[in-house]
Amino acid sequence: METLTFILNNLGAIGERTVEHVSIVSVAVGIAILTGVPLGIAITQSQRGADTVLYLGSIVMTIPSVALFGLLIPVLSKIGQGIGYLPAVIAATLYAQLPIVRNTYTAIRNVDPALRSAAIGMGMSVPQRLWRVEIPIALPVIIAGVRVSVVINIGVTAIAAYIGAGGLGTFISRGISQTDIRQLLTGALALAILAITADFSLLWLQRRLTPKGMGPRSS
Amino acid sequence: MIRLEGLSKIYPTASGGMTSVDNVSFEVGAGETCVLLGPSGCGKTTTLRMINRLVTPTRGKIFIDGRDTDASDPVELRRTIGYVIQQIGLFPNMTVAENIAVVPRLLKWDARRMRKRAEELLAMLALDPKTFADRYPNELSGGQAQRVGVARALAADPPVLLMDEPFGAVDPVNREVIQDEFLRMQKSLRKTVLFVSHDIDEAVKMADRIAIFRAGKLEQYAAPDELLGRPANDFVAGFVGSDRTLKRLRRIHVSDVMSDDRAAKHMDGTPTVQPHDDLRRVATLFLEYGVDALACVDADGRVVGSVSRAAVASRLGTAGGGETAA
After folding, report:
1. CA separation for the pair B251, B204 (Å, rounded)
2. How far apart are CA B208 and CA B325, in angstroms?
3. Which of A85, A158, B50, B147 lies 20 to 30 Å from A124, alpha-carbon distance?
4. Tens digits of per-residue pLDDT, B34-87?
5. Which residue of B102, B108, B140 to mutate against A (max A Cβ within 10 Å)?
């Protein structure tokens, strides 16, 4: 009850924090898509490249986010950005990278070799083959990677509140330091709703962008 | 039309190199269907894929219409050559009409022309355009998909068609039907077709010429009747099978062996044959009715000649002496 009152009295603040949170996540995922998809496609050309990139990506994933923020502080302090928005976006981008790169790589690799052979044999150039055949077929799996990245990033960004990046994590960090259960619950609840909403919207997008002739038949 | 000169493909290996195609030369005339035949791994598919540059030859030249294909850009070259593969390879993200229009789209035709062409080809391949044009490949049966694959290869009206075991994935009954449709279509289209197969029956049925391969070498290049009648060596004889004489009967027609003995009697109770029947039917009737000769009638039932056991035997005995009936 107390929590509900707190929420109703602080709708404006919750809204602001949500906007901050979404802005960090979407900028990070946006950068990760723009870099990760081309990278995922590029490494289908070289087994060694693929192994290296995916291995590095996995290493990044094993670094706890608090540690990564810590590592970024001395580096970014040199340009006066040790804490706040920039390190949050950088860390989130790094975490978003692997699911997108890995899914893109796997999806493109799994395109039926007969389709590739037909596309080349009919006289498609490499970009034509990618845009007209391989990327459309791979798209649902690529978006599945984006979904994973977004959900991971909503969690990572919550922790970024500790380095002053704002976002919904602020309620949690304050809730803990002030032993205020209302703020703690508000933050947790808002984050859960945000993650579920984002996941479902992207699932809807994934279904929308699945080429009609693929997946479950619809008519 | 298509001339292969000393074509070789050697794949580099640790031990120096694996010869997949070994110094192959032959020529296919315009409008002819040439079947590349042989056991798996004999180099027939590699040979085919060198023609549209999916495989780069190690040595040798390929001329299409007298032009060295080395001189053209491979991507441009491929747009002028229809290509059908066994796995069909229809793009699942495109409708049937869009699949057929792939090459026209690469050639920047306008949308209406592409649609019209797709519908025209569907109709030609016995698929109702209204029903099929907007379906997706996952809504087609194997036989229907294979027809769309052929339609796609023909879309931009290329003079040359390469077909890599095109009907291999279709069940035997449908395969016969599609083969017949293709033969009927080819009669009016007169494309220059190179067709890879491992099936001697299919080769005898489809080919004007058969190129038979073993271990990368061209063992014999001949019309089906000559290949069956006078195999060049034991390998060819073994490959075409001990029933090769029976197989030849398919490609010889009554008109090839008929005497124009218009007075030939038509005995009551024995059936008649027509000039376009093949000799399988004639031989069957010889055996079934125990007769030595059959009257041959035209479409209106008038006797136009007769065909005798002796004439058939003499035709089979002089194999390869002349042109085959196509």
Report:
1. 7
2. 9
3. B147
4. 999 999 889 999 999 999 999 999 999 999 999 999 999 999 999 999 999 989
5. B102
Selection from B159, B213, B150 nearest residue B183 by Cα = B150
Which CA distances in Å does B69 have to B2, B82, B276? 10, 15, 40
Q: Within 13 Å and on the Cβ side, how many CA atoms surround B72? A: 21
Q: Are B39 and B239 in contact (CB under 8 A)?
A: yes
Interface of B with A in 302-321 (CB under 8 A): none
User: Closest to A123 (Cβ–Cβ): which among B89, B91, B103?
Assistant: B103
- Order of strands, edge to edge, in the sheet holding B59-64? B18-28, B2-11, B59-64, B67-68
Q: Which of A108, A116, A122, A141 best tests the B interface by mutation, with the highest count of B CBs <10 A?
A: A122
Q: Look up the pTM and report it.
A: 0.82
Q: Are strands B160-164 and B192-197 parallel, antiparallel or unpaired?
A: parallel
CA–CA separation, B307 and B236 (whole Å): 30
Chain B residues with beta carbon closer than 8 angstroms to that of A128:
106
How many C-alpha atoms does A37 have within 13 Å on its Cβ side? Answer: 19
- The owner of tokens 């067709």 is B195
